[in-house]
Design a protein that fits this description.
Layout lengths: L1 H19 L1 H9 L6 H11 L7 E5 L5 H10 L12 E6 L9 E5 L5 H11 L4 E6 L9 H22 E12 L4 H11 E7 L10 E9 L9
Parallel strand pairs: 1-2, 1-4, 2-3, 4-5
Antiparallel strand pairs: 5-7, 6-7
Helix pairs in contact: 3-4, 6-7
């Protein structure tokens, strides 16, 4: 029974941390669905990525906190409802409660049908910013988890390469540990500017961090215009 008691203690400690978390309280107060909104807010405020008039794609969008933040950035006076100056397209395998003004596509963007739906929504425009909070279900086996994480980041980078404006930006969640240096290398190969950021809203105990790539490098063999 010791194991179960320990597990209960861990759950209780997590719940206690969660309930007393200042970002959880702030999210509830400001109407965000998750504290994750403040991670993107910090990154955006540090780098000035998202501006009115932009087309922004939110990969791994459920439950919708990042889409909510983007929506407020694209709205006059930061409104959570009403007029929107820009376009937000969100995708996730999981369902997501509607966010006003956000086009949500449920599905896997690796599938041609989902990609076609996205391209129809974009209407030939390239994205100004792609954000990805995608994360796999972790197994606890470090090597397997690192491979899953790396795969999702690589997908986001490939997606950005195909759908981002040349001067656009990609924000993606990564984890420190096995495979991290290879992901930094991948970003440096594909983007002119690469910035790793650990927002204050990321929990201290978490190995979560974010990589931001700004300005696509031309594909190898293609001279810069």
């Amino acid at each position: 029974m010791k194991v179960r008691t320990q597990s209960k203690k861990v759950n209780k400690a997590w719940l206690n941390d969660h309930v007393n978390d200042p970002y959880v309280k702030l999210a509830q107060k400001e109407g965000f669905r998750a504290r994750a909104a403040y991670k993107l807010k910090e990154i955006d405020e540090a780098l000035g990525l998202i501006r009115p008039g932009h087309l922004v794609v939110d990969l791994g969008s459920a439950p919708g906190a990042w889409s909510q933040y983007i929506r407020r950035k694209l709205a006059p006076a930061g409104a959570a409802a009403g007029t929107l100056n820009g376009t937000i397209i969100a995708l996730d395998l999981l369902p997501m409660e509607p966010v006003e003004g956000v086009t949500f596509l449920q599905g896997d963007f690796r599938e041609p049908e989902v990609l076609q739906r996205l391209e129809a929504e974009v209407g030939g425009r390239k994205a100004d910013v792609v954000v990805s909070d995608m994360a796999p279900n972790l197994s606890g086996i470090e090597s397997a988890d690192a491979a899953r994480i790396a795969h999702l980041v690589e997908l986001a980078v490939d997606f950005a390469g195909a759908h981002l404006k040349p001067e656009g930006a990609l924000v993606t969640k990564v984890f420190h540990g096995s495979g991290y240096s290879q992901l930094v290398k991948l970003f440096k190969e594909r983007f002119r500017v690469v910035k790793p950021l650990k927002p204050k809203a990321s929990r201290d105990k978490s190995s979560e961090t974010f990589l931001v790539g700004i300005g696509l490098k031309p594909p190898k063999g293609v001279a810069a215009g």
